[in-house]
């Protein structure tokens, strides 16, 4: 039996031959920023504590994913994962699994300066830090909080703790930070961070996304090439990696663009998501979820939970359909799904 055939039988395979090996785990839907492309100023109706998986429940499901379902990469996200008290312990227990998965965290960076060392000691491999601007005023406007310095300090701490390569995620919004692509790249080149732009997606809680005003990958590339010499990075074959990568000035540093809207990569998707309340989502844009928490709390054994998880993947659609006129945004926003 080939590796693919084996994975199709035992792993998280869908009807289109894709096998999910990359698990995104949301540890909380709460956040200490209010990015305008993500959530409203007043925040959201957060999940109540009893609904959230406990640390032990998170580790149990992650462990089943790794030991029974072929998951190789775990990314903890949210909401803001650094707000989860048990994060360091969850990371430590995840990095002790066999086979050892790659473990990373996506964070807004606030509080990372304090936690970077402990996360490294817990075995964390890498961090992705979201930073959409290097202008303090724009940061305040975009996130509705005056915390840019904390993020910059968090990035530096991650680098010092060797949580590398430190990746920076940036979303551009027209009229807000859309002219800042070159400055962001300059900042990242100067500090040795790997910058990736993400096209804004219809996943905001306010349903305010507008296809006609979003900044496209092509526009971003246009702005960057006015200032930098970019060449396609052939070494990093796109595969299931969503970012198209470019060498800056001949390399070795790179910049990536994740064109989820204008150049979808659903055919190569290897992702699956677990929400903070124990629901499996086969796609960011899925309109249905599969409940693992109820079975888990009712005493299901690992085999049964693994089976439920496998079955949850069968309905995965071939694509997200954002560009289809009949597209409907999922009812959960990105912050509650785990981006
Ligand atoms: N709070 C953490 C952070 O901001 O990195 C983790 C969760 S956040 C939902 C994960 C990533 O999703 C961030 O890089 C953020 O910029 C991105 N994101 C949030 N809403 C988005 C949207 N509507 N379109 C594209 N990216 C979005
Ligand atoms: Fe919070 Fe991340 Fe959403 Fe910004 S993008 S509001 S930091 S969850």
From TrEMBL:
Which transformation does this protein catalyse, written as a reaction? GTP + AH2 + S-adenosyl-L-methionine = (8S)-3',8-cyclo-7,8-dihydroguanosine 5'-triphosphate + 5'-deoxyadenosine + L-methionine + A + H(+)
The metabolic or biological pathway listed in the UniProt record of this protein is: Cofactor biosynthesis; molybdopterin biosynthesis
Q: Where does S-adenosyl-L-methionine bind?
A: 37, 79, 130, 201
InterPro entries, per database record: Aldolase_TIM (IPR013785), Elp3/MiaA/NifB-like_rSAM (IPR006638), MoaA (IPR013483), MoaA-like (IPR040064), MoaA_NifB_PqqE_Fe-S-bd_CS (IPR000385), MoaA_twitch (IPR010505), MoCo_biosynth_MoaA/MoaC (IPR050105), rSAM (IPR007197)
Give the EC number. Answer: 4.1.99.22
Q: Where does [4Fe-4S] cluster 1 bind?
A: 31, 35, 38
Top-level lineage group: Bacteria
Assigned keywords, A-Z? 4Fe-4S, GTP-binding, Iron, Iron-sulfur, Lyase, Metal-binding, Molybdenum cofactor biosynthesis, Nucleotide-binding, S-adenosyl-L-methionine
Span of domain Radical SAM core: 15-233
Which Pfam families does the record associate with it? Answer: Mob_synth_C (PF06463), Radical_SAM (PF04055)
Q: Which cofactors does it use?
A: [4Fe-4S] cluster
Query: What does this protein do, in the record's words?
Result: Catalyzes the cyclization of GTP to (8S)-3',8-cyclo-7,8-dihydroguanosine 5'-triphosphate.
Q: How does it assemble?
A: Monomer and homodimer.
Specify the protein name: GTP 3',8-cyclase
Gene behind this chain? moaA
